[in-house]
Structures are given as C-alpha cells and as structure tokens.
C-alpha cells in the first residue's frame, strides 16, 4: 500500500462569478502533519469543504487511499475515515462527555444502552489522548480546550484514516496549545495523516512537517517546513511578487486643513482577543492596519467601534474619553465601521438603497425623530451620484447590487452621518477590479475631507498605496508602526515576520 | 464528589415536592394518608401521561400545542366508536392510539421536512383537532360500556386508606416506559443531542429528520393515550374537554426540571412536576379559604423560579451556541 492517505488532483470549485478553487493538487501522507495556509479567501476552507463533502467539487479528483471518493455530506466523509474538527466545537454542550463521544455508537445489551460499558469505552478513548476527566459531567462545563480534545478523541475513535483540524488553536491558551500539539504528534506517530489549518505561523513551524500554501484559489506550492524560511512563507501567502505597484500617497498630498480632531487609542485590549494597543488617529490621515489573518486587525476595529467590549484601555476624542460600551455609543461619538463581513454585518439586504443609506443617521438621531422622506431621498440621490453607485433607482433592495456597490452603500451610510472616524475592515474584499479602484479613490477623497480613517487590509499593495501611517499587527499585538517613506511592502513583511 | 450539574434542576424539583408535601402533612393531618397520594396519582394521570410525551418534544427543542385538543378529540372519537359503531372500548382505544400517533407523525413530517416552527404546525394541529371534535359531536356524551365501568372501578389497595386506580397504574407504566426510551435507547439520546445543539447533532451523524418525526409521533401517541385514560376515567366525552392542558403539560415539564430550550432534563422530573402541580391544587382545596386560582399563581411563581435556575446553570457552560454573548 502506498504511503499516501489522501490525494487531491486538479480540484476546482466555482461559485457564481468566483473561482473559489482552481486546479489544486494536495497530498497527505500517512504519519505527517501538513499545514494548509493562505489568507482569507485563498481557498483553504473551500478545499476542506470539497474534501469533506460539504460542497460537491466541480472539477478534479479526490482519492482516499487510491480510491476515488464522492462524499455527499460530512457524515459520509466521516464514514470513509475523514474526520474533521472545527474551530467551533461541534459537539452538544448539554450532553455528558461520554455521550458526546459515543453518540450513535453506544454499546447496547438487549436493545437497551449499557451505560457502564459505554462510559468505560468513552474513558478508554480519552485515555489514548492522556485525558482523565469525569465523563459524566456535561461537556459544556469543561473549557473549550477540553471540548476540542473530546472532539478529536471522537474523531480518532471513529477509525479515522485522516484528521482535519480547522483552526483548532484559535480559542486556546499557550498551555492548552502545547497539550494539543503533544496529542497531534502522538497521533502522527501512530500513522495518522493530519491536515492542520491555522493562521499562526509560529505554530506551523512548531508542529508541522510540510506546508501547502494556497492563494486566490490556486496552489502556490507544497514545501517541507524545515526548508522554508518564514519570510519566504509570508511572501508566498501574500504573493507580493505578483503586483509591485507602489503608488505611494505622500503626506503632503493631503489637502485638508480644517479643525484637527484627534482620536487616541490608549492601551485598548481585551483578554484572549487583543493585547493592549495604542494608536493615534488624526483628521485627514489614513492609518493602515496590516497583518496576517488573525493578527488582531479585525479585533482592534471591533474594540474601537464597541462591537466587542474592551477590558482595558480607553479611546480619547480630542482628549475626552469616549464611552464604547456598544456600537450605539460609538456611533453617537461619531465613529463608523464598515465591517469585514459585508453581507452578515453590513448591509440589510432586503431594505432599499435609500433605507440602507439613512440607517446610521437615523440611528444617531434616535427613532423618535424620523428623517423626513424628502430629506432621505435627497441623501440617497446625492450619495448615489457622489459615489457612483450603480443602481437603477434608490428603491432597489441592496441585496441585488454587486459587492462593490454594496460597499459603496455602506460607505454612503456613514458619510451622511458625518463621522469623525471611519473604520474600514477589508474594504475591497470580494470586489471586482473596477470598483476596487473606485473604493480606493473614495478612501483618499474622504481623507481629504477631514475624516480620520483606520483601514484594515490584508492586501499590502493597497495599504502601501494609501496609508500615511501603518500599524503592523502580529499575534494579536501591535508590533510596529511605520510612517511615510518607511511604508513599503518589504518593511511590512519584515515586521510581520520578525 | 461534586454533584453533576445535570442533576441540579431535578434536585430542585424534588426539594420543592418534599417541601410542599411536608407542609401539607404538618398543616393537614389527612395529608399523610395514602388516600391523598392515590388521589393525586389518579387525578393527575392524564396530565402526566401527556407531559411525558411533551418531555420528549421539549427535550428535542420543540413544542407541541396540539395535545389538549388531541385529548378531547380522542374522547369524542372513542365515544363515537363505542356508542355509534358499537365497538369494544379496547378496540376503540387501539384505533385511537393509532390515529393519535399518525396525526403526531404527520405534524412531525411537516416540521422536519419543511423545516417549519413546531409552534406554528402544532398550533394549526390544535385548532384542527378542536374543530374536528365538533364535527363529530356537539355535546357532552356518556361512554356507557361494562368495560368502562370495570376500568373506573378497578382498584389496587395501598397500605392505609388509599388505593391505585387503573388510570394511575397506566400513568406509572407510561412514566417507566418514558424513562427507558429517554435514557436507554439511541433514539432517546439523539433527542437530547438534537435539543442540545441541532447543528452539531447533524454533523455528528444523527438522523435529525427521522428523530424529529418520531418525537412528534411519540407525543401524539402519548396524548392519545391520555385521551383514552381521560375518557375511561370520566366515562364521557366532551368537545371542550382538556382546554389548556397543553400549557399545563408544558408547565409540568418545566417544573420537572427540563430545559425549555431542549437538551437537558428527565422524564422522571416531569412525573414529579405533574405531582407538584397536583399537590398545590390539593393544598389549596384543603385550605378551603383560598380561591382555586391561587393554583395558577403558585404554578406561575414556580415556573419563574425554575426558568431562572435553568438559565443560571446553562450560562456557566462554555460553547453553548444559544445565548452566548
């Protein structure tokens, strides 16, 4: 028998208008831990979903031990020996640990479950992972780390041939991660093939044997971990050899000379989410937030906007502390956020362009003072013209517009409410090239009008192109701040890798 | 050893029952007699049988509002079969059980296959069955048959002055059956899993749809059985019988310690919950000076208490999808 557990050949997956995965090859050997890396939208999760049968593949082959397989759903794949453990533990918190391990596999005597035997089996399964806990207590009463290990125990106990760990370490602390790594190594030594998806590069180097990097749905390459320097890995992930345009926007370009509003972020942090970060944002200035996925970019935006409540630090506006207990407070203080997940957190798809545009302004005024219809119409028409939103009229539901135009609607929403600070999280994700340039241009114009802008992006060219200052994030910490001429892709990558 | 947090709600239920019963014994000498116990078991038999079925529904994360109407409908159907068609009551009862389980299965299919809120489907079932009662019969009719008289006359003496009736025995058998199904079959455990986290249950390979269909079939069956017991016990059928019993059953389940959002609870708890409601009623009847609506006030207060208790327990859980902040 060959040593390859799983081999994917030329896998492709197309969604309307997007090639999520194109001609990807992937091999998993017996007894190896194989990292699958890439930025958001690189195709990691699509590849996993194709392997586990969540999505049917549109092209290519998936071979398990040399046999082509066509799993229809995750249960199918599990039956074939492909077990997956997700970041979000997919077990039942209200059931006991033993039950979670043994669901649908309980030992039965005369058609009735024998609890003694079932619990003994569960205990034995956990002992193989060196875990000694009371299996009778509800799963939910244990920490997420233990729950994750229980999920792995279940996966392994199901005669797994290979194990996919999808971001298993995201909610674990240092010691828990070490336990997980020990177990991963033990399972590897027993001959299991493990796919390890993560965005923590130090973990990749700590535990994996090989690395496969995806970018924009395509395979960049498979490398032996020991032979790949971290800086090369980051280059592969961010693909900076692709576009080397450095149209830098210099400070003197900024033509804004109105009142200098100042926003100071002082030691803003939250346990397990973000180490305390300090950052100054000034009117008429664009501050870029660079870093890999999971470095704390989004988390910082959310803390400043009050979506998550910080447990340390404060934000000052012109020297006065700002209450940031909820987005409502942030909006009242003149902050705006264009979230990363536009569909989920940004637009209200069923409402019209006009209604979406006046939403934040209405929220700020309070529901007791409705905005007159004529005024709403004027706001909407002005914005559609100013931002070049491609829509037949202001009454079209936003859900029917393209991604780029949806993003413009969200921008318009904040613009009519005249914010002091606008936070843009991945403003150009999933937007086609034409609209991409429009959005960048808009960002620059907004800045010239005296807004303070905080823009998080994983596209370095973009950040280099418009930022006056760049805060580089790594491992939920701000590691460096670059100003003016220091802002180059090389410098940013260096800061991330250091 | 630390007490397993799964047992907190049922321990609270038992504590409440002991307190109420103890209070009864101290205040009223007659309360210590087995006569009261026998009457409690008999009078609440039909409610507890229904509540056992409801326990499965609530454990699965659903709700069944049709059970009260089902009891009335089965009564009217039995009366029609026995009086109109001259059937033996046992045959009529068997047909009724099949009809009840069948209607439950129908609602289950609607809920599972079309992914509709159980509240809506069973609300429709509630109206439908109540209406069907009047289609068959507009008035209260007696069910006259030697077997029915024998059923209501059947007594197993208890030590002391009390006795167990056939209704009480059937109810106790139902509770035991419910405990076995809930705790010793894969179906039972799957119900808990679905109620705990449906999405995870699906990923764990549990047949979610067929389990949900079986849950409502079971509830239909138990409420039909309750209808049969009710008809035998009262020896009559009335289209407006058992109005609001679905809410009493839900209350019994919750006071019995089952999590209203599903996934946690015990069939035995439901039995205690039903008995608690009976004890409250009996206490107020014994007192004599209190309006019988005090029963509702007490039950309402207990419900508040239990719901808060459950919330406190589940809030300590990590990884609960529902209600996480």
TrEMBL record, chain A:
Subcellular location(s) per record: Cell membrane
Domain ABC transporter: 6-241, 259-495
Entries under SMART domains matching the protein: AAA (SM00382)
UniProt GO cellular component terms: plasma membrane
Keywords carried by this UniProt record: ATP-binding, Cell membrane, Membrane, Nucleotide-binding, Repeat, Sugar transport, Translocase, Transport
GO molecular-function terms, A-Z: ATP binding; ATP hydrolysis activity
Coiled coil: none
Protein name in the entry: Sugar ABC transporter ATP-binding protein
Organism annotation: Thalassospira profundimaris
From TrEMBL, chain B:
Membrane topology summary: Multi-pass membrane protein
Pfam family name, one: BPD_transp_2
Keywords from the UniProt entry: Cell membrane, Membrane, Transmembrane, Transmembrane helix
GO molecular function: transmembrane transporter activity
Entry GO CC: plasma membrane
Record-annotated membrane-spanning stretches: 7-26, 46-63, 70-87, 93-112, 119-143, 163-184, 215-234, 266-286, 292-313
Localization in the cell: Cell membrane
Name recorded for this polypeptide: ABC transporter permease
The species this protein was found in: Thalassospira profundimaris
Lineage, highest ranks first: Bacteria, Pseudomonadati, Pseudomonadota, Alphaproteobacteria, Rhodospirillales
């Amino acid at each position: 028998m060959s040593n390859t557990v799983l081999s994917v050949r030329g896998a492709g997956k197309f969604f309307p208008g997007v090639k999520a995965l194109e001609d990807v090859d992937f091999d998993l050997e017996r007894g190896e831990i194989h990292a699958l890396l890439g930025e958001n939208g690189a195709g990691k999760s699509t590849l996993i979903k194709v392997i586990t049968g969540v999505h049917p593949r549109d092209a290519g082959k998936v071979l398990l031990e040399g046999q082509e397989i066509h799993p229809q759903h995750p249960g199918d794949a599990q039956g074939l020996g492909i077990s997956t453990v997700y970041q979000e533990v997919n077990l039942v918190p209200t059931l006991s640990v033993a039950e979670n391990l043994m669901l649908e596999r309980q030992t039965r005597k005369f058609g009735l479950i024998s609890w003694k035997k079932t619990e003994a089996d569960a205990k034995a399964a956990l002992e193989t992972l060196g875990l000694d806990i009371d299996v009778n207590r509800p799963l939910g009463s244990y920490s997420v780390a233990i729950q994750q290990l229980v999920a792995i125990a279940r996966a392994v106990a199901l005669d797994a041939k290979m194990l996919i760990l999808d971001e298993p370490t995201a909610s674990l602390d240092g010691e828990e991660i070490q336990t997980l790594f020990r177990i991963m190594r033990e399972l590897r030594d027993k001959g299991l093939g493990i796919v390890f998806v993560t965005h923590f590069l130090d973990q990749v180097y700590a535990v994996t044997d090989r690395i496969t990097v995806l970018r924009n749905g395509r395979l960049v390459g498979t490398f032996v971990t020991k032979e790949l320097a971290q800086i090369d890995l980051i280059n592969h992930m961010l693909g900076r050899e692709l576009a080397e345009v450095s149209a830098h926007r210099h400070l003197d370009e900024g033509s804004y000379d109105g009142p200098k509003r100042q926003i100071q972020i002082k030691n803003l942090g939250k346990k397990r989410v973000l180490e305390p970060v300090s950052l100054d944002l000034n009117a008429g200035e664009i501050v870029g937030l660079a870093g890999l996925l999971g470095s704390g970019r989004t988390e910082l935006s959310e803390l400043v906007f009050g979506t998550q409540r910080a447990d340390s630090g404060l934000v000052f506006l012109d020297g006065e502390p700002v209450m940031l207990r909820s987005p409502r407070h942030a909006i009242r203080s003149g902050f705006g956020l264009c979230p990363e997940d536009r569909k989920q957190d940004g637009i209200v798809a069923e409402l019209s362009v006009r209604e979406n545009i006046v939403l934040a302004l209405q929220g700020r005024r309070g529901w007791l003072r409705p905005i007159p219809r004529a005024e709403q119409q004027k706001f909407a028409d002005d914005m559609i013209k100013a931002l070049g939103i491609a829509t037949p009229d202001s009454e079209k539901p936003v859900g029917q517009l393209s991604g780029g135009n949806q993003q413009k609607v969200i921008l318009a929403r904040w613009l009519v409410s005249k914010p002091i600070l606008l936070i843009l999280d991945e403003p150009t994700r999933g937007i086609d090239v034409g609209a991409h340039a429009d959005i960048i241009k808009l960002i620059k114009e907004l800045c010239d009008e005296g807004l303070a802008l905080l823009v998080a992006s994983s596209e370095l060219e973009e950040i280099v192109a418009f930022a006056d200052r760049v805060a580089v994030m790594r491992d939920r910490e701000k590691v460096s701040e670059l100003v003016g001429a220091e802002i180059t892709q090389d410098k940013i990558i260096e800061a991330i890798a250091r | 050893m630390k007490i397993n947090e799964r047992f907190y709600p049922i321990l609270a239920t038992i504590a409440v029952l002991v307190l109420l019963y103890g209070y009864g014994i101290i205040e009223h000498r007659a309360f210590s007699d087995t006569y009261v116990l026998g009457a409690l078991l008999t009078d609440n038999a039909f409610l507890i049988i229904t509540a056992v079925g409801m326990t499965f529904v609530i454990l699965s994360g659903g709700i069944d509002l049709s059970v009260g109407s089902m009891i009335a409908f089965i009564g009217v159907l039995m009366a029609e079969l026995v009086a109109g068609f001259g059937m033996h009551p046992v045959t009529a009862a068997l047909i009724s059980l099949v009809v009840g389980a069948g209607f439950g299965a129908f609602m289950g299919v609607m809920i599972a296959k079309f992914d509709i809120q159980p509240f809506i489907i069973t609300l429709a079932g509630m109206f439908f069955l109540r209406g069907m009662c009047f289609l068959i019969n507009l008035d209260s009719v007696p069910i006259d048959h030697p077997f029915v008289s024998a059923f209501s006359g059947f007594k197993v003496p208890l030590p002391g002055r009390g006795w167990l009736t056939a209704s009480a025995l059937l109810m106790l058998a139902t509770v035991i059956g419910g405990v076995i199904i809930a705790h010793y079959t894969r179906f039972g455990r799957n119900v808990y899993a679905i109620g705990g986290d449906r999405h995870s249950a699906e990923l764990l390979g549990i047949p979610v749809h067929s389990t949900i269909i079986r849950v409502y079939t079971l509830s239909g069956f138990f409420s039909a059985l309750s209808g049969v017991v009710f008809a035998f016990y009262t020896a009559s059928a009335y289209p407006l019988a058992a109005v609001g019993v679905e809410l009493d059953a839900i209350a019994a389940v919750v006071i019995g310690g089952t999590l209203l959002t599903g996934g946690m609870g015990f069939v035995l708890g439901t039995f205690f919950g039903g008995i608690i409601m009976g004890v409250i009623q009996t206490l107020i009847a014994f007192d004599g000076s209190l309006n019988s609506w005090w029963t509702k006030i007490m039950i309402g207060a207990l419900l508040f208490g239990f719901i808060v208790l459950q919330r406190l327990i589940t809030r300590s859980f990590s990884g609960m999808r529902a209600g996480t902040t």
